[in-house]
Design brief:
With 345 residues, this protein is mainly alpha-helical. It is 48% helix and 5% strand. The chain has two domains: 46 residues, no CATH class; 208 residues, Rhomboid-like (Rhomboid-like fold). The strands form three sheets. The protein has a two-stranded antiparallel sheet with strand order 1-2. It has a two-stranded antiparallel ribbon with strand order 3-4. The longest helix has 26 residues. The radius of gyration is 43 Å and the shape is elongated. The protein starts with 12 loop residues before the first strand and ends with a strand.
């Protein structure tokens, strides 16, 4: 029997087709739910109501592990936790959730230089020191009402004068390195710090660089106390800058870098220190020697217990400088005569 296609012929009645086919003219009943009714709510006689149309089952998406109110079909390729796009980070393969990223960072080995600092540390201390020196110069220039001849209270109370320092003005050992006698003096020193500082700071790190700078500064001041005139005022960051050059020289020597340019710069500056009056060669030489010692402290200790070696040896250098300073202060008289005037503490 030929079955009518959907939508054609009556739902129930006599078969049709060719006269010779079996079942021709016989009455048949349409199969249940053969035709969906035009109106599901209508009741057709002889045809059962199939009910509402078929709908595929809906399954709810999982919620983000860290945001329960967000549904997501994404998940971490490492642990499988469902996570929303905000909580996923691109990885070499797929995406990692925030917890897997935190765990990998905590176990990841940090790349460090031979001095122990992080490789990705950017130089900051060098530029901060330039800013501090410029700010102090601005204060002294305003007080002195001049950019070429410093004579303000801050400048007079901060310059290094061995007789005053030996009789109690110990702060001059540090403050003198942040004072400059004029704008040209400041410009030359800060240009040198800008060129030398970041290179050394990238290699040894911020804290170690600051330690080299300050200890070299102190070494230059102690050398001034030892070999300079008792009433000769000294100011400038040159001692600390020579210390940076000394530290770079030691580092270049250890790792067999090309020393020619550095040696030329160092030799030229030392020659200038001894050829022109008014330049404290004592501070330059003292800073150079101290800086070289500090550079060796930063790069020669073994990797195991490196920090302990660096801290201990730096403390030893500072202790030696303070010891020399105390001995020298004991040799400075309470009164001194200069230019026909008698100065007493």
């Amino acid at each position: 029997m030929t079955v009518p296609p959907p939508g054609e012929g009556p739902p129930a009645g006599y078969g049709y087709g060719s006269q010779g086919e079996p079942g021709y003219g016989e009455y048949y009943a349409a199969p249940q739910n053969y035709y969906p009714p035009q109106n599901p709510g209508a009741q057709n006689p002889g045809v059962p109501n199939p009910g509402p149309p078929y709908r595929a089952p809906q399954y709810g998406a999982p919620a983000c592990t860290w945001h329960p109110d967000r549904q997501t079909n994404l998940s971490c390729t490492r642990c499988g936790r469902p996570a929303c796009p905000q909580c996923l980070t691109p990885a070499t393969v797929g995406f990692h959730c925030r917890q897997c990223v935190a765990e990998s960072r905590s176990t990841q080995r940090v790349a460090r230089t031979h001095a122990g600092s992080r490789v990705d540390e950017k130089p900051i201390v060098s530029y901060l020191l330039i800013g501090v020196n410029a700010l102090v110069f601005l204060i002294t220039a305003v007080q002195s009402r001049s950019a070429l001849d410093m004579d303000g209270w801050v400048f007079n109370q901060g310059t290094l004068v061995p007789w005053y320092t030996g009789n109690g003005d110990w702060w001059r050992l540090i403050t003198s390195a942040f004072l400059h006698v004029g704008i040209i003096h400041l410009a030359v020193n800060m240009l040198s710090l800008y060129m030398i500082g970041p290179t050394l700071e990238r290699f040894v790190g911020r804290v170690r660089f600051l330690a080299i700078y300050l200890v070299s500064l102190l070494g230059g001041s102690v050398a001034v106390m030892l070999w300079s005139g008792l009433l000769v005022p000294v100011a400038g960051a040159s001692g600390a800058l020579f210390g940076l050059l000394g530290a770079l020289g030691v580092i270049f020597t250890k790792y067999k870098f090309d020393l020619r340019q550095l040696l030329i710069v160092l030799a030229l500056n030392l020659w200038i220190s001894f050829q022109f009056a008014g330049i404290s060669w004592q501070g330059h030489v003292g800073g150079l020697v101290t800086g070289a010692a500090m550079g060796a402290i930063m790069v020669y200790p073994p990797a195991k217990n490196r920090v302990a070696w660096q801290v201990g040896l730096t403390a030893a250098v500072v202790a030696v400088l303070i010891g020399v300073l105390v001995l020298r202060s004991g040799q400075i008289p309470d009164c001194v005569v200069a230019g026909g005037f008698r100065y007493c503490s």
